[in-house]
What does this fold into?
Amino acid sequence: MTPYQIFTDATADCSPQWLASLPYVNVIPMQIEIGGQEYTYGPEGTITVKEFYALQKAGNYAVTSQIGPSYYFRAFEPILQSGKDILYLCFSSGMSGTYQSALICAEELSEEYPERKIICLDTLCASVGEGFLVCEAAQRQAEGYTLEELARWVTQHRLKVCHWFTVDVFDHLRRGGRVSAGTAVLGTALQIKPLLHVDQNGALAVVEKPRGRKQAIKAQLAKMEQGWSPEIGKTVVVGHGACPDGAQALQDAVRERFPEAKVLTADIGPIIGAHTGPGMLALIYWGNTR
It folds into this structure.
């Protein structure tokens, strides 16, 4: 079996603890601008999650950039030269044009290295949901899946990764065009904590508008109760944007309601955090409530 390397991007928010016992996953850094400064987020990056949210809480807004083809060339080519194939698990095309950039690069590199295989897959996932899928894929690589077998597995399972997010503030959703200015003002006044999910097309959509953190967590748990599929896997991920107390509350609630769940936690990084702000809580699991 020809060896292959799994790639993903910094949007995936893969916790180092998740990956510690798994085959190496190559994470491509991404660019972000906040407070008038440009940073790189990811391996050997110039900004940490803690630093990013401190800047947001100080009143700064962030802008992200998609990965260009030249970045993929620099990341992919050494792997191809070493004799390995590539499986790239990309940030959802419903939120970014990054996937198209990867395809452009893969097509050109395939002409230069016709003996190698480059498979780019749109995960239709984001943040800790993307990281969840990447780690599950790495586990199957460790179990001996071939490149083609793993690509089929990811394609068959990506829409079974359920993402349910709540946000604490409206400002970042408003600036990103997710909600109107009027909705943001009214929602803030009423203490609404929007419930969002990643839909079948990999896009972020507002689904419900619970009032207060407790009601938002109840709404997340209700969605999981409707569609959790532990027969696929019992791992459940609680992600948070600089909100450890909220993450603990959601984690405790999941363990109480679903005692067989294996609950992990992870930070929601700057790429998604740029659009959702501090205080975001995410619940990720295998299920049928996409």
